[in-house]
Amino acid sequence: MVTPGSCRDSNAHITTDKYLQTSNLQIFAAGEVLATPGLVYVAAKEGRRSAGNSFADVPVPLTHDNVPEIIFTHPQIAKVGITEDTAVERGFKVSTTSLYIADTPYGLANNDTKGIIKLIKNADSEELLSGEIMTKDAGNMIQTLTIAIQAHTRAGDIINTYFPYLTAVEGIKLGAIIFEKNVHTLSCCG
Question: Are residues 89 and 168 in the same domain?
Fold first, then answer.
């Protein structure tokens, strides 16, 4: 598709602003023509947002900071949020934690101790910025972090939320607890 007057990047992707508007102010773009995550849900959201913004008096920006990504290997690898480097570039003071799956009740109970959970938070606001998970259930676990990051959840909110014992997702809570204390000293469940 040729878009007259629209700028392109070095890979021939159409460039847009945060409202998905191209350099030709009458054209909005979405989907595979952009250098955004190549996922069907991303393209669908971009399509809805660009269509809405093309008719809006006040356009709504779209960020791709909170797109969950999964690599279906064994173990699975999943991530959501901005990278630690990006957070620092944006001026955040960051704090990170890492929890080996071997240190979770779920990993021990299922004799599947391969993997790790890494969380990154804004050290000033305590807000979670991102998470990376590598374990056989990473694809299922990442949605919990996606919702938490989208809702600007603080690490303390995760700590104070009930998580079911002996589940993979409990590792997210334990990862958040590490921001405050050593999980090896817990009697049970945080």
Answer: yes
User: Quick check: is 190 in a domain?
Assistant: no
Total of domains in the chain: 2
**Domain of residue 173, residue span:** 69-185
**Mean pLDDT, the chain cut into blocks of 10 residues (190 residues total):** 64 90 91 90 95 96 94 97 96 97 94 95 98 96 97 97 95 96 76
Pair 109, 22 in one domain: no
- Residue ranges in the chain assigned as alpha helix (H): 40-55, 84-89, 105-109, 138-150, 155-159, 170-177
- Integer Cα distance of 77 and 69 in angstroms: 8
Query: What confidence score (pLDDT) does residue 28 get?
Result: 93
Tokens of 36: 């955004």
Length of the chain: 190
Answering whether pTM is above 0.90, one says: no
Q: 147: which 2 tokens?
A: 């919702």
12 and 100 part of one domain: no
Whole-angstrom distance between the N-terminal and C-terminal Cα of the chain? 55
Residues 138 and 175 in one domain: yes
In a shared domain, residues 10 and 92: no
3-class DSSP state of 183 = helix
The pLDDT value recorded for residue 163 is 95
